[in-house]
Amino acid sequence: MALIKFPNRTVNSDVVNPYVNSFFDNFFNDSFISDRLVTRVPAVNISETEKAYEIALAAPGLQKSDFKINVDKNLITIAVEKKEESASEDKFYSKKEFSFSSFTRSFSLPESVNYNQIEAAYTDGVLHVTVGKKEDAIIAKRLIDVK
For residue 76, with 0-12 CB atoms within 10 Å meaning exposed, 13-18 middle and 19 or more buried, which class applies? Predict the structure, then answer.
């Protein structure tokens, strides 16, 4: 069940029309309605190493084939569209529910990206996208002697 925060009501609003308030409270607290009103966008962590940028997107319950990753100029887009239906030919359903979920996340890429070095892997419910840097963007490390 999703938690949806509503603004605090004044005492007078309940006195004026308690039936309307209780109707809306019940309507929005219904798990069928509230689960569909809440937008589900997966959490993401973006980090940078010496040689690459790393995007970790939490998306459990999916398969590798559910992801579509596109790069267009300086924008990388991760999209998922998943439809699940459970069907049985030998049963009569008075109620049948199916699940459809989708999301899209887009991120701007810096000029230092090497577009030929973009890789993705999906393990343990987390999509890992590694975006390599151009050679001239990688900072060479060395120790400088003081004279």
Answer: buried
106-125 pLDDT tens trace: 999 999 999 999 999 999 99
Q: Which residue has the tokens 């609003």?
A: 13
Burial of 6 per CB tally in 10 Å (0-12, 13-18, 19+):
exposed
Task: Please answer whether residues 100 and 93 qualify as being in contact, where contact means their C-beta atoms are separated by less than 8 angstroms.
Answer: no
Residues 60-98: pLDDT tens digits?
989 999 999 999 989 999 999 887 665 556 677 676 666
Residue 73, phi-psi category: left (phi > 0), alpha (psi -120 to 50), beta (remainder): left
**Which amino acid is it at 11?**
V
Strands in 19-146 per DSSP E: 44-48, 52-58, 67-72, 75-84, 99-108, 113-123, 126-133
| pLDDT of res. 83 | 76
| Whole-prediction pTM | 0.63
